[in-house]
Design the sequence.
């Protein structure tokens, strides 16, 4: 991800080999949380978006 320009606050959900990951970027600092179920990952991501003041249910 070094070559990508990352927004200072963002939440992304992605799947890799059957596991779901939520990448949260807050003030330029990234953290990743993994989940076995997509529904848990999307619920967690929505909560993080609320906390960051982003639109819920939308990748940003």
Sequence:
């Amino acid at each position: 991800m070094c070559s990508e320009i990352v927004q200072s606050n963002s939440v992304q959900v992605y799947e890799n080999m059957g596991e779901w990951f939520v990448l949260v970027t807050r003030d330029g600092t990234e953290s990743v949380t993994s989940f076995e179920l997509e529904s848990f990952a999307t619920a967690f991501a929505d909560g993080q978006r609320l906390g960051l003041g982003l639109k819920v249910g939308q990748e940003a």
In short: The two ends are 16 Å apart (CA to CA). Residues 1 and 33 are 16 Å apart (CA to CA). The helical segments are 38-52. The longest strand covers residues 9-16.
